[in-house]
Amino acid sequence: MLLLHILSLLATALPALATFPTKLLYQSPTEFFENIAVRPNGKLLITAVTSPTLFTIDPAASNATLDAVYTFPNGTGMNGIAEYAPNVYAVVVSKLNDTTRTAELGSVTVWRIALTTRHPVVKRMAVLPDSKLLNGLSPVPGVPHLVLGADTYGGIVYEFNMRTGATRIALQTPVIIGINGLHVRHGALYLTNSLAKTLMRVPLTMNGSAVTFSGPFEVLGGIQSTAPVASFDDFTVDTAGRAWVATLPGALTLFTPHANGTWSQENAAGDPAGGKSVFAQPTSAAFGRKGKKDGRNLYVVTHGGQLVRVDTGCEE
Ligand SMILES: *[C@@H]1O[C@H](CO)[C@@H](O)[C@H](O)[C@H]1NC(C)=O
Ligand SMILES: *[C@@H]1O[C@H](CO)[C@@H](O)[C@H](O)[C@H]1NC(C)=O
Ligand SMILES: *[C@@H]1O[C@H](CO)[C@@H](O)[C@H](O)[C@H]1NC(C)=O
Ligand SMILES: *[C@@H]1O[C@H](CO)[C@@H](O)[C@H](O)[C@H]1NC(C)=O
Ligand SMILES: *[C@@H]1O[C@H](CO)[C@@H](O)[C@H](O)[C@H]1NC(C)=O
Question: CA–CA separation, 204 vs 188, rounded Å?
Answer without folding.
Answer: 5
